[in-house]
Amino acid sequence: MNDTASPPATVATCVIVHDKATDQVVTIRNNAHYLQREESLPADKRFSEHPDSAAARCLREQTGLNVDPADLVLDRVLTMAAGWEGYGSQACVVLVFRALRWSGELAQGYQPQQAVWSPLDRLPKLSPTFTAIIDAYRDESPLYITRG
Predict the structure, then answer these.
(1) Cis peptide before 142, with omega less than 30 degrees from 0?
(2) Residue of 108, 41, 45 whose CA lies nearest to 75
């Protein structure tokens, strides 16, 4: 029997905002020199409130868009054994929400990020985690996804 307990998994939220009329989704352009290679979706792994409230707050902080937590539906659950983007040894569970309705205009998020509308069929290069999330969304894959 192993007496060493595994650390609890990190829980993160991610929000897919898909304007079906224009077939575009909100992506986050990272302007920091060390992050410029890849864009992301609105996401956060540091929160103490209920996950849907955390997702709504994250969306507002990173994009300027407002969403009522009641207008978020759990779309996917992604588990990663190797942690967020493979960094660290702590497992990570990402609760992926889809926004049914939102209001507001895209605005500069907290530095050094900028939210933009990106065509779903021509997305910029996303990090591996966000690529897995958007591929599952686009392909209507199972609700539960495992990476690593």
Answers:
(1) no
(2) 41
- pTM of the predicted structure, to 2 decimals: 0.84
Which H helix or E strand runs over 55? helix 51-63
Q: How far is CA 127 from the centre of its chain?
A: 11
The per-residue pLDDT for range 78-128, each reduced to its tens digit, is 887 766 665 566 778 889 999 999 999 998 766 557 899 999 999 998 888
9-to-5, 48, 56, 81, 108 alpha-carbon distances in Å: 12, 14, 22, 9, 31
> How many structural domains are present in the chain?
1
35 inside domain: yes
- 26: domain CATH number is 3.90.79.10
Sign of the C-alpha dihedral computed for residues 100, 78, 87 and 124 taken in this order:
negative
Quote the DSSP letter at residue 15. Answer: E
The answer to whether residue 1 is domain-embedded is no
**18, 25 Cβ separation under 8 angstroms:** yes
Query: What amino acid occupies position 13?
Result: T
How many whole angstroms from its chain centre is CA 22?
20
Edge-to-edge strands, sheet with 18-19: 18-19, 24-30, 113-119
**What six digits make up the tokens of 50?**
């209920």
